[in-house]
Amino acid sequence: MSGIRTVAVAGLGLIGGSLARDLAARGVRVLGHDADGGAVDAGVVEGVLAAALGPGLEGVEDADALVLAVPVGAAPALLERALPRLAGVRLVTDAGSTKAGIVAAARRLGVGATFVGAHPLAGDHRSGWGASRRGLFAGATIYLTPSPESAGEAVALARELWASVDGRVVEIGVEEHDRRLAWTSHLPQVVSSALAAALAERGIARADLGPGGRDVTRLAAGSPEMWRDILAENAVPVSEALAAVERCLAAARAALESGDAEAIEAWLASANGWGAKDA
Predict the structure, then answer these.
(1) Is there a contact between 137 and 67 (Cβ–Cβ < 8 Å)?
(2) 63 with 37: CB under 8 angstroms?
(3) Cα-only R_g, the chain
């Protein structure tokens, strides 16, 4: 990359670890930090990390960019911890699934000009350094959410950073991002978890499910701590989306209780018309 030669990645799980691997493979000097010291040690041993950041993110001042690849609930505190060393850092970005909280924190801490929110749509239920891999972002949508305070240079660097790992960069407003993700990411997680909870209550094991059932409940294996923070921060739009699902379920139950086969088919057909479009 022409504008970024050294990147500090704070959080070396699936997203941060994969980003570190891709950047290092492209000749970028990568500095790393993680609450799990084993992840940092592994990154150094594998030649992905050029050096480890200190517990207070000492060393981040040598980076052109800082990426906060930690759960959304931990990102503001980590940003504040790094604050005394950010004077020369040209870009601060993140990888969280909600944007309002971290953007507000960046503004409150006085780094709004260099902060550009980001969200790569490349996660799954696995986590940790061991789940990270090269090529995770190839072809994936990467939402960038610049705020009115974001400087043009920072936005250009954020675009360059994520495009360099073959992501498809799309700019979107902060509020629009959180509303959209409530439907496209957070709602599927809630529905999958609700189905898993109902099956568990009934005493049905995941091993009893067929391929379709396993597909639908796969998201329920995601980290409860991570999803707690996401859902709490985006509670209002997720609640609105969940209300829509509840209406659809109520319609299905009404059709079943009426014993009306045509009503059941009509309900299924309304969903089939949407689901078959990209099948």
Answers:
(1) no
(2) no
(3) 21
Its CATH class, for the domain covering 177-275, is: mainly alpha
**Segments making up each domain of the chain, as ranges:** 6-172, 177-275
pLDDT surpasses 90 at 151: yes
Q: Which residues pair with 52 in a beta bridge?
A: 32
Cβ atoms within 10 Å, residue 180: 15
Query: What class has domain 6-172?
Result: alpha beta
Residue range 35-84, pLDDT digits in tens: 999 999 999 999 999 999 998 999 999 999 999 999 999 999 999 999 99
Output phi, psi for 141, to 5 deg.
Answer: -70, 130
Q: How far is CA 260 from CA 15, 251, 252, in A?
A: 48, 12, 11
CA distance 156 to 3: 9
Total-model pTM: 0.90
Q: Kindly tell me the burial class for residue 273, based on how many C-beta atoms sit within 10 Å of its own C-beta (0-12, 13-18, 19 or more).
A: exposed
